[in-house]
Amino acid sequence: MKSLLLVLCHTVIVLLLLVMDVSGQNNTLLVHHCDPGTEAFVCSVASFVYNTGKQQHSKLIHTGDNRNVRLGFPDSKIPYVLRSRGDPTIPTYDAKLHEELNRPPAVIVEVIAPEPADSGSQYALRYLDLSRNSLSDMEKLHVLVNLETLILAYNFLETLENTVFRGMHNLTTLILSGNGFEELDLAIFPPSLVWLWVDGCYIRTLSLEGAHLPALEKLAAIDNNLHSLNVTMLQTVAPNLEEIFLSENVFNKKTIDALHVALDQAGIAHDGFETYGDLLRIHYPELHNDMSDIQEHLESWDAIISIMAVVLNLLCIFGWVGYRVWQTKRQRGQFNVA
Ligand SMILES: *[C@@H]1O[C@H](CO)[C@@H](O)[C@H](O)[C@H]1NC(C)=O
Ligand SMILES: *[C@@H]1O[C@H](CO)[C@@H](O)[C@H](O)[C@H]1NC(C)=O
Ligand SMILES: *[C@@H]1O[C@H](CO)[C@@H](O)[C@H](O)[C@H]1NC(C)=O
């Protein structure tokens, strides 16, 4: 009886929550103003709803002189109902949305996974930050030909379509950090590129064949799986390269020594990258010395935790069996009394 009541109670609470959730969705403010003070630099709006498939849309009232817009920021200000609904707040970035944001020259979209839609329009967009969304495909970005800065850090890009950047004649800064492509062909980038960030991307092969990057000054390829690099060819491809960052790759000692010499000769500054073992020794000297000690400790801890887990499991089983036996006995006792 008691448990039936509990179940009923729970059902009612869950239903109430569902009703509240649905009404919450309907009550979502559809007219947004920039977060106080942000209109001067970049109009920041956390809970913007845009989904062409649904009726509910947000409208932006922008009063500042600066028309740049940042959507979905800060994360903590996005209403819980919008975050937990499952579907992204903004599934596409298209001409209509651009219009509803008052045609901003710069847009930053965070944590709402938009897929740019090719609507054939000429976007005047010069700055686009799509960091930390869930993009696995960027083919549709090719329409944004006026971009000067494109930030796609921490998405799920595994391939870079070789036509995407072709029309972006004004692109100078490209940040692709924290994606997952194993091959990088520098020939796909436009000659206007000055800064290229491809750190933490699991890159194994960096292809220079056919690339032409006369404006490139900085190249960051830290934390990848590179084991070789042809500096002579790099210099041909990017004659104005000033600085390169190559730490945390898998070059062996011999390659590193050769690279240091070649880069110094080419007048390209670098981050003094070392082999991984050397890096550990430099940053954690005690750790390196005590590595075997730590391993032993870990192994003994492993054993202790395993034993404790087994004992806990046994205790639970015994406890449960004991409880059932006691319950049965008590019930029998009650029947006997009755
Ligand atoms: C939201 O409420 C309005 C009236 O306030 C109603 O017309 C509309 O149909 C509701 N929308 C949904 C999705 O329930
Ligand atoms: C690039 O910049 C130039 C000069 O700032 C401008 O005229 C041009 O329209 C821009 N866009 C493209 C795609 O070249
Ligand atoms: C580097 O590339 C050049 C061609 O640009 C080639 O002649 C040379 O042999 C290459 N070096 C290595 C070590 O592969």
UniProtKB/TrEMBL annotation:
Native species: Anopheles darlingi (Mosquito)
Database matches in Pfam families: LRR_8
Record has Signal as a keyword: yes
Keyword line: Leucine-rich repeat, Membrane, Repeat, Signal, Transmembrane, Transmembrane helix
Leader sequence segment: 1-24
Transmembrane segments: 303-323
PROSITE patterns, alphabetized: LRR
Protein name, per record: Leucine-rich repeat protein
Domain of life, per lineage: Eukaryota
PANTHER family: SLIT RELATED LEUCINE-RICH REPEAT NEURONAL PROTEIN, TIR DOMAIN-CONTAINING PROTEIN
